[in-house]
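Hey, quick one: can you model this chain's 3D structure?
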Amino acid sequence: IMQVLRGSSFFAGVSKEFVDEIASTSVDRIFMPGDRVIEEGQRGDSMFVMISGTAGIFVADPDICIDPQTKSQAMVQADGLSPMATKTRVGTLCPGDISGELAMLGVSPLRGATIQAETICSMWEISQDHGSTFLERFPESRLHFRQVIVQHLERTVMARIIHLPLLQGFSRKFLTLLGLYCEREAYFPGDTIVKEGQAGLKMYIINIGTAQLFLKGVTVKTYGAGGIYGASVML
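Sure thing. Here's the predicted structure for all 235 residues.
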């Protein structure tokens, strides 16, 4: 198993102790061809690690950014068609790949894609409680999760920017350049994005998740997907 995991981009730089921790806290799952590992729009709080096999990754519409926190399962079905008939394939899950990290980390309570087994798949399932534990024990693993989160959400960036009400008056060329050159960052629950009183030069657009604004220790606002902070500072 270690040889398989070491061949993946996520596990290539982590310690054996980190992998052992995941293995000891995970539940072994077997999926047959055609089985759905997770379903887009359904609630979930666990992450899956592919040990062997392959699975397809499907989304309802890869060109439309929908807030996972408000999307319902009905949105992936239409006119009595099979749910998979309304989805588009956007990738493949291979040995060493992970999926469902947003749910496990508490960033999004609903699944953002459907994972369907193409071969017999052996997977590890890690719950949110166990995930929080090994993130505390292995803080260096946060970097790996950040990279995976940014990679998995890349397909949603342009749609998020194009549909922002604040930017509706700008040309498509400007929005495309903004989407190409804006920095991608991922934050865990409890992380500080900006700190009161510090100089700032950036504007932040929340793609997925929620963030709270504190003023002198008091919560004054909660930002959701599509929320913007720091526009006046950037300008």
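One thing worth noting: The radius of gyration is 19 Å.
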